[in-house]
Amino acid sequence: MKNASPFVVTVSRELGCGGAYVGQQLARRLNIFYADREIIDEAARRFSVLEEDLKFREEKKLSFWQSFIRSYATTPDAYVPPRILPPSDRELFQAESDIILRIAGERPAVIIGRCGDYILRDHSNHVSVFLHADAAFRRGRIERLYGVTPEEAEKMIVRSDRERTLYHRTATGLEWTDVRRYDIGLSTSKTGVDRTVDILLNYIRDLERQ
After folding, report:
1. How far apart (Å, rounded) are the C-alpha atoms in residues 176 and 169?
2. Which residues contact 135 (CB under 8 A, 6 or more apart)?
3. Number of structural domains, the chain?
4. Could you tell me if residue 1 is inside a domain?
5. Residue 155, Cβ neighbours under 10 Å: how many?
6. What is the DSSP letter of 18?
7. Which of 6, 114, 134, 210 is deepest in the core (most CB within 10 A)?
8. Closest CA relative to residue 117, chosen from 4, 19, 206, 18
9. Spatial separation of the C-alpha atoms in residues 74 and 57, rounded to whole Å
10. Residue 188 belongs to what domain range?
11. Which of these, 100, 95, 129, 105, lies nearest to 10 by C-alpha position?
């Protein structure tokens, strides 16, 4: 994969499959930039809102966020400072697209989520990855990471899958779980998260030798 453009990996993932961990380890072992929180930081600055507010919008449509805004705005006996209306779905998607395109144009990077595979579909030095796992693996990992019950973990999975499906359909017109969209798809429940990193590294190095 000999190309003048910076090398970029995008990782799309199901909640609980270990996608963020895989992305972090991949960036560390490739010695390239890991882009996740930085995208939220810059988008928050653009819209003059708190970073914590935009975290509620990650791969979700605005309707899923409005209950948070309403509860905050109507808290009894609390001072609520004037605030700018939250960005629309289209405004947020466009801002994050601009940020992702800039990162991909400036430096090698691993970019997590946010329709990165779609945004960089025309990037000439891009590998798109989709990570998924079976339900038991996802539930177990969420239970350990978030300290929740199996029932709560299951609800988190159902909600996340539903919200990401709707967000991706609205933003791209495509199904985010369609593995045909990606260069490589792996089940972390079959390979394990650390072995997944090794497989992706070998895949990338094979491409580089071509």
Report:
1. 8
2. 154, 157
3. 1
4. no
5. 13
6. -
7. 114
8. 19
9. 20
10. 8-72+80-209
11. 129
Look at residue 75 in the predicted model and tell me its pLDDT: 45
CA-CA-CA-CA dihedral for 9, 92, 80, 65, to nearest 10: -80
Instruction: Say how far apart CA 154 and CA 73 lie, in whole Å.
Output: 30
CA 103 to chain centre: 15
Residue 57 forms part of a structural domain: yes
Task: Scan for tokens 């453009």, then name that residue.
Answer: 5
Q: pTM value?
A: 0.81
Tokens found for residue 62: 């605005």
**Both structure tokens of 207:** 């491409």
Encoded tokens for 1? 């994969």
168: which DSSP letter? H
Edge-to-edge strand ranges of the sheet holding 126-132: 33-35, 109-112, 8-13, 126-132, 184-187
pLDDT along the chain (210 residues), means of 10: 79 96 96 85 69 55 46 44 62 88 94 94 95 97 95 95 91 93 96 97 88
* 140 is a domain residue: yes
Q: For residues 111 and 123, give the distance between their C-alpha atoms in angstroms, rounded to a whole number.
A: 13
Q: Helices 193-209 & 19-30, crossing angle to 10 degrees?
A: 40
* Coil, helix or strand at residue 50: coil
Backbone phi, psi, residue 13, to 5°: -155, 150
Q: Are 117 and 10 in contact (CB under 8 A)?
A: yes
Q: Which CATH number do you get for residue 25?
A: 3.40.50.300
Tokens of 86: 């939250």
